[in-house]
Design brief:
The structure is a homodimer. Chain A is of the alpha+beta class and about 375 residues long. Chain A contains 13 helices and 17 strands. Chain A has 3 domains: about 80 residues, Rossmann fold; about 60 residues, 2-Layer Sandwich (Dna Ligase, domain 1); about 200 residues, D-amino Acid Aminotransferase, Chain A, domain 1. In chain A, the strands form 3 sheets. In chain A, strands 9, 10, 11, 12, 13, 14, 15, 16 and 17 form a 9-stranded antiparallel β-sheet that branches. A 4-stranded parallel β-sheet of chain A has the order 3-2-1-4, sandwiched between helices.
Chain lengths: ~375, ~375
Amino acid sequence: MKRIGIVGGGQLARMLALAGRRLGVACEVLDPAEQPCAASVARHLRGDFDDLQALDRLVADCSVATFDFENVAVAPLAHLAQRMPVRPPPKALAVAQDRLEEKRFIAELGIPVAPFRSVDTLHDLRAAVDELGGPCLIKTRRFGYDGKGQWKLRDSSDCESVWAALAGTPAIAEAWVPYQRELSLIVVRDAQADHRLYPLTENHHVDGILAHSLAPATADAALAAEAKRLAFALVDALDYVGVLAIELFEVDGHLMVNEIAPRVHNSGHWSIEGAHCSQFENHLRAVTDLPLGDAEARGCSLMLNVIGQWPDRQALLACPGVNIHDYEKAPRPGRKIGHLTVCADHPNELGERAQRLFVAAGKSALWPALRERIAAISVQR
Amino acid sequence: MKRIGIVGGGQLARMLALAGRRLGVACEVLDPAEQPCAASVARHLRGDFDDLQALDRLVADCSVATFDFENVAVAPLAHLAQRMPVRPPPKALAVAQDRLEEKRFIAELGIPVAPFRSVDTLHDLRAAVDELGGPCLIKTRRFGYDGKGQWKLRDSSDCESVWAALAGTPAIAEAWVPYQRELSLIVVRDAQADHRLYPLTENHHVDGILAHSLAPATADAALAAEAKRLAFALVDALDYVGVLAIELFEVDGHLMVNEIAPRVHNSGHWSIEGAHCSQFENHLRAVTDLPLGDAEARGCSLMLNVIGQWPDRQALLACPGVNIHDYEKAPRPGRKIGHLTVCADHPNELGERAQRLFVAAGKSALWPALRERIAAISVQR
């Protein structure tokens, strides 16, 4: 049996390991925490991500390495890559870790991205705002996630305060994109360049954190073709092996890439019940050279994140068709501790199920906007 | 978080524990093996099933106990039942452990069973064959599974040899039933007498072991109503909490109960992908007083057991839509070491997927008969 070493032992590693248990692919997670949430379903190797002894142990135990978060330092990963296959390739990680490199890489492939400028000085920042216009977004080049390390700059009068907040951290300025929808794509590619693409997913963020995802998103043939083209172009250019997540904006009927994540992704969690083969299983299949699985949707699905604390379990489970995914993580404000998925053959039924679920989860305020989106799927059918 | 103690750590406990991981219900398995297959996903308490110290530890660790096989001795279970809730109730176990008690219990509810006679002596055996006619089946009253402890007796001339094979073990004689199909039902009931019923499943045995299951089985409204009536009557009479499996014969358009199993069951494995809430999750929900989940089928499903050794994984995973369930058990002739499930929205697609799967699994010889059965679902639609 092949063992996969996973750098990081959070909920993504946990769901990879759970998929591996069924598939007969064992996982070993490297994580400094005493009891990371993947440890109850995978072997846990306790150590810091840059602990060379721990990394060597991973090399001894496993035949291939992967990671469950993109902020792994490049040096330890290079240490691993000299000793065993690391999938996805470290190059993809390097690109995704740096918003400037990422934007340049994507733009060079002819894929639309928001106009951007490098910002290393206050002068750069002022010039960028002049050229891109206001409002615009300023983001640290590295280590941002869930909306952290980002500022919305209204006009040039905000330059001083944003520059102070940046405190000299290298940054990127991006033009504000008046998008209609936030979408994402999960694509998987294996070492033989075989691809599978999950359908476009529609995402809704609250306070910079993904709140819920709807899949498949409404999309006409032209938009679906655009999605496929850009997804395949990205993974091919990176000689990618594994799952890549692509966050997108829909602007006037076209797609623009916001960012990529070289790993399984929150917006693909619906695929556990909503596709024949989940993003987690397909990542494992790709990195261990097993044939890729079917990424087509089974009916339609709605995934709702559980953030901070659990709603009442009795109320949640009384909702027809709900699937609870508990990450066994301690509750903490703003922390993703689980997710909930409902699926249905038809959007009308999904709507009924989602409405009950949103009430039970105390998210009624989010429901009216979602109802419209589910109705849109229904119309498209 | 509630912890469930499971007596037995085989694949059924493993799949319960895997469902529990998602649901946020932790499991602890009691098993004498060094590394039972549930141990990689649940806490393992090593001990014999009648080890009172180990049982007391289970009481200390858990809030409710259940079991993953029906041949648990009654005495240790009574020990547990005095100290914590045991679900399903030990009475159901006692009935299911003894084929004679089982048949009497079912018959008293007015549910059809094959004509039967108690056999304790050679004289009883001869009288039974005279009354029931040949051929008939002789089964030990206790500890039979997967066709073990059973003999088919052609006529009275076989009495001596079967009696010798029995070697004094108390037995039951059953009339041979000229059935058209082997079916099964999975029903779940909670402590508030709420019920959920999975659709009828059609089962195919080879050498006394379940080879594959097809769900939902074709069934007209009258047969489905009969199934519901008998399933609810059985669980209500036992004041049952948890999943009960009912093995059935279809004889001239009516149902006859062959046997019951007070646990999750091999013929319900399709429900992991083929229903919104699997039999495993519903068992956990029932025994921990959580609301029951949706037992309706999602499309149609085919489950194929992996017995003895694994077919080539690459070939299996190249089949569209296949789900591998590896129990992480050592290969051994006749041993159930995993199962495979394919699902589809429409029977025609299921047929295509099943055919590819049967070829990849080296089971082409079983395919023609299954093709006819899948075609029957298609016609019914």
